[in-house]
Amino acid sequence: MSITHHDSLSNSNGPDENAILVGVRWGDTSSRIMDEHLAELRLLTETAGGTVVGQVIQRRTRPDAATFIGKGKTESLKWQAQELGCSLIVFDDDLTPSQQKNLQQAIGDSIKVIDRSGLIIDIFAQHARTREAQTQVELAQLQYLLPRLTRQWTHLERQMGGIGTRGGPGEAQIEVDRRLIRTRIKKLKDELRHITAERTIQSRRRKSTYRVALVGYTNAGKSTLMNALTDAGVFVEDRLFATLDTTTRKLTFGENHSILLSDTVGFIRKLPHHLIASFRSTLAEVAEADLLLKVIDATSPQAEEHFKTINEVLEYLELNEKTSIAVLNKLDAIDDESALKRLQRHFPDGVVVSASQRLRLDQLEAAILNAYTHDFEECILRIPTQLAKLISSVYETLEVKDRVFEGDEAVLKVRGPKRAIEVFQEKILENADR
User: Fold this and answer.
1) Residue 130's closest CA among 274, 279, 231?
2) Which of 83, 229, 355, 368 is the most exposed place for a label (fewest CB within 10 A)?
3) Strand segments (E) across 274-408
């Protein structure tokens, strides 16, 4: 086991908790990869409001079933945390409920033991703003806590009704708590289903509009890019998971071409699949998008690894077959020209921009427009002249190349996205059946 000490870092989120990070090098994992993982864990800890004062790295071939790192190493970690005045120990890997319980008992209640999932959920809880994000966060918290329940959670009965929620005299308090949490989980899932239904209705209204979603590693500059393209006013902060809520804005090209651009929650390496599942409805914008902009921080030495992470998450969501454009962001901060050229070789069709300085955004807009117009079709729409609003909507959405009147019909020769044309054809048929 190797131990490294770090000076405390200041944090603006109030009183910091001194933390030790714990990472395990499995098998032939390189020291470089290990350092990258712990650097990311440090950022996560600082984002949550902690100050990293040390880190512990251990080599193992497999985790210890009881304490993940073994009894002897656990004792050493306890001593180290006490010496450094720590109130928090963060494991880079996920712990089983029993491992976390055993570690907590061995180290003592004065020092919290959490794993990567627990840390990320805590950050999500800090940054959730909308009803949907807050509901998803609470659901993720309770699903995480349920198998880890101890008697410290008895306060939940006050939050969830108290009278009428207790079991019979023979029921252990721990079972009461579990039942309370399961009841709350069911209620939250019902709420999410309702939110998802509302989103589906909204999505149906947007069906004729081409949709583009920004995806990428957290802190790559997605929200800054969203603001630069649309003046959306999305909250931007130099921290991981600064935004959890999806923002959608209209982006217009010329007179007839407009798209909907959505900013989504950032991805991260080793983001547990159960957390992705909790946020599946937030990622619905990605599922419904026609085009994905995969935003990469071009200044990061791990840019290619981050791109791999993006694709792994999309693969898990079964969305990696969608049309996409790699966007290499932060051009203004690149010092190493050779590194930029290497990235451009790796992403030959990628677009290099600076969202913060609004550099080369015209090239990105041209690439989006090219993808947007790729499947354009031409067809004839015959619309009764009394449907003035529908005719007006066609002019707003499609390119009208020619127009003639035949009797009480406007005959429009139009060009535009196949899906948009199909929507108008459906509306014409609906009106004909009335």
Assistant:
1) 279
2) 83
3) 291-297, 323-329, 351-352, 376-384, 399-406
- The residues with which 329 forms a beta bridge, in sequence order, are 297
- Lowest-confidence pick of 52-56, 101-105, 212-216, 300-304: 300-304
**Which residue pairs, CB below 8 angstroms and at least 24 apart, start in 391-397?**
393/424, 394/424, 396/256, 397/208, 397/209, 397/256, 397/258, 397/424
Of 98-107, 164-173, 266-275, 301-310, the poorest mean pLDDT is in 164-173
Three-state SS for 430?
Answer: helix
Instruction: Tell me 181's DSSP state.
Output: H
| HSE-up (13 A, CA, CB side) for residue 375 | 10
Distance from the first to the final alpha carbon of the chain: 76
* Of 142, 429, 80, nearest in space to 278 by CA: 142
Strand pairing report for 323-329 and 291-297: parallel
- CA gap 286, 292 in Å, rounded: 7
Among residues 44, 64, 66, 65, the alpha carbon closest in space to that of 55 is found at 44
Q: Provide the CB-side half-sphere exposure for 226 (13 A, CA).
A: 27
Query: Is pLDDT of 239 > 80?
Result: no
Which is nearest to 144 in space by CA: 111, 126, 119? 119
Q: 116-127 vs 131-145: helix axis angle to the nearest 10?
A: 150
Range list of H helices, 20-115: 31-48, 71-83, 97-107
Nearest to 52 by CA among 14, 3, 8: 8
- Per-residue tokens: 195: 């939110």
| CA contacts within 13 A on the Cβ side of 288 | 27
Q: Taking a C-beta distance cutoff of 8 angstroms, is the pair 283, 273 a contact?
A: no
Strand (E) or helix (H) holding 393: helix 388-397
What is the C-alpha to C-alpha distance for residues 114 and 426, in angstroms, rounded to an integer? 54
Q: How far is Cα 430 from Cα 434, in angstroms, rounded to an integer?
A: 7
Please say whether the dihedral angle defined by the alpha carbons of residues 273, 275, 280 and 282, taken in this order, is positive or negative: negative
Residue-by-residue DSSP string for 203-237 = HHHTTTSEEEEEEEBTTSSHHHHHHHHH-------
Judge whether residue 115 has pLDDT over 90.
yes
pLDDT per residue over 250-281, tens digit each? 888 766 677 889 887 778 777 776 677 666 65
Of the pLDDT bands very low, low, confident and very high (cuts 50, 70, 90), residue 367 is: very high
